[in-house]
């Protein structure tokens, strides 16, 4: 097993001079060196063949003792120094001060095929940023992260990836719903992979301390390493204010692209704090996420957010904008002029609605643009909320609609209704009116019905990681049976394909899962 190791992050950025692993404030540093906690009896549960290949490893490598030990924190690879990153963040709209990698430890960087990857263990023990926590993770949350990050990638959503899922062999105490009922669960570790784990909060922390020197060092490193198209060989030495504004614009563009994909597939992140937003516009930190079952813009899976619903599905693009404002406030210390930053934010606000409309057009098979499309889409979203209607099944089946027979519309989408008795005559009439309008609009399209169906099936997945599916895999894994993890992993590699042998997963949420913990209610420990 051979890695082409790099150390761009640790060599370019200031380290915490204190090396003991005590909980503390870490000023004027971007990271602290820390060693993963050895595990009692590690065991690999699943490894991604795709990510092995991406990193230049083989399936035989994954079967070695060395692989197991490295990716469960028991062996620190020679010539590497693991570290935890320092960052702050706005949590639920309020500045929370220093946060940092409380249960994530970065192992090393690997370069392969001209791509640089940071490898990070989640659940490998405490760090200076763990505050009152133990830095560990449980099997439940680890299965969810492992499966979802890979599923999102195959859906075409920008995301961090996962290399492996392992049991630590340790028992970890957790209060699942924060209601005073802690219990021991199986400990687990996920190996996350990303070009960078930097977040908005990585910059906010230095700005909050008025540490302009460290802030500039970090922003310049980020631009030179991850946004190098913004600099030429002669400007690398001195990045100017215009470069910072272009950098901010790129971050805004990538973040918008990411969140529009979330809306397209019905993904709800659940905890969009500024420390959980990637500077590269990647989906990061799979905690209390969920997938829309019934189309419900006001739904959030996060019990902590149940009252205010700040991070509900429908507001996700607006929350990204709010978070971008916080990043702009940090970058302002380097630019000292608001105009350029404000222009980027105004452009995001405008593009947000334009991109959302384009995405929704694609979901209903429109390849041309008409002024009244926004009205057609708004009426559709209203209809979807008349009675509980499964988002994934509705849009997938809608591709079978033919504009020459609009009266068949209700029959085509019938499978997506959770309770057919709730589809009253008034509901049917409203839907039939919409199908008439939709049929008229489709008849002004130049593409064939066959091409429309193909286009729709490329953007409307047949299979997503529904919450109950993940919970079934977790329940089996807790009994030592990992077959369902593998089945779902392989199913979700082809989310747009029909996969007839997996048709059972193209189904509405079962009634038993409606109010079950892990299916409808999730906490930040999820």
UniProtKB/TrEMBL annotation:
Active site, per annotation: 275 (proton acceptor)
Ligand binding (ATP): 100, 102-103, 122, 134-135, 192, 199, 285
Record carries keyword Transcription: no
Top-level taxon in the UniProt lineage: Bacteria
Binding residue positions for Mg(2+): 276, 285
Keyword Kinase: no
Enzyme kind, highest EC tier: transferase
Entry keywords, A to Z: ATP-binding, Magnesium, Manganese, Metal-binding, Nucleotide-binding, Nucleotidyltransferase, Transferase
EC numbers for this chain: 2.7.7.-, 2.7.7.108
Cofactors (names): Mg(2+); Mn(2+)
Recorded family membership: Belongs to the SELO family.
Function: Nucleotidyltransferase involved in the post-translational modification of proteins. It can catalyze the addition of adenosine monophosphate (AMP) or uridine monophosphate (UMP) to a protein, resulting in modifications known as AMPylation and UMPylation.
This protein's name: Protein nucleotidyltransferase YdiU
